[in-house]
Amino acid sequence: MAKNEINRLHMGKLIAQYLNLEKPGPARTEVEKIFELSRQVDRLQREYDSDMSDGSRAFAERLYRRNAKLRSILSALNRALDHFAFSPQMYIPLMTAAGSPAPVDKATGWTVGLEGGHVAVSWKPQEMATFKSETYPAESIVKTLLELTEMGALSRIRQCFCGKWFYAESNKKEVCSDACRARKFNTNNPTYHQQHAKKLTKGKHAKTKKR
Ligand SMILES: [Zn+2]
Predict the structure, then answer these.
(1) Residues 52, 17: one domain?
(2) How many Å lie between the centroid of ligand 1 and the Cα of residue 161?
(3) How many Å lie between the centroid of ligand 1 and the Cα of residue 146?
(4) Backbone Cα Rg of the chain
(5) Domain limits for position 63
(6) What is the structure's pLDDT at 197?
(7) pLDDT at 113
(8) How far is the CA of 16 from the centre of ligand 1 (A)?
């Protein structure tokens, strides 16, 4: 897997974990607001990408309309972002197995584990953080959401029908686990016995009605 892909996977899994674990509260509400606005931005970005490949003469007109919409969403998004303050820091990243987000020390908000490799930039939440999260610092989550939006990968953060959030490694993935895939398959394809039982009940019901 390419380095960028691994980064995207870590980032996506971090967001999914936050959405699965963080309890309702001011931090979660604010993160969800930024998530929703970023999703609107992401949709417009993807619309633009498919428009680009079209290349028809109406493109400029669509671009103009899209930019107007985008500007109003961005202005709402930037107003929400005004509540967040960061200080840039340089650090040695953690060596983690691909796909597993590094554990975070709840007290400090810093990741813990074995360090190694090239230094990286991180954006540390300022001491007077407005929104206190229980799981990961809201600032880190917001930063990651924005980066995924920039990369055009935000649509890969999805909610399974069971309610759980997950990061779809491939665009096709719509469920969080093998267990949920099996459950979905069984609902769509009832077994012979289930179908047979249904027919029987229907038949009986019809007879009772006639009498
Ligand atoms: Zn599921």
Answers:
(1) yes
(2) 6
(3) 25
(4) 23
(5) 3-84+131-172
(6) 64
(7) 65
(8) 12
User: In this structure, what are the phi and psi dihedrals at residue 109, rounded to the nearest 5 degrees?
Assistant: 85, 0
What tokens were used for 42?
A: 């992401």
Ligand 1 centroid – CA 85 distance (Å): 35
Shared domain check, 92 and 70: no
Residue 92 vs residue 113, higher pLDDT: 92
- The more confident residue out of 168 and 85 is 168
Å from CA of 8 to ligand 1 middle: 21
Q: Are residues 148 and 48 in the same domain?
A: yes
Single out the residue of 139, 182, 142, 159 nearest to residue 20, CA to CA: 159
Q: How far is the CA of 177 from the centre of ligand 1 (A)?
A: 6
Answer left, alpha or beta for residue 206, where phi above 0 means left and psi between -120 and 50 means alpha: alpha
Q: What is the pLDDT of residue 187?
A: 81
* pTM of the predicted protein model: 0.73
Task: Please state the domain count of the chain.
Answer: 3
CA of 159 to the centre of ligand 1 (A): 8
Give 191 Cα–ligand 1 centroid separation in angstroms: 21
CA 166 to ligand 1 center in whole angstroms: 8
Are residues 52 and 63 located together in one domain of the fold? yes
Three-state SS for 167?
A: strand
For residues 25 and 44, membership in a common domain is answered with: yes
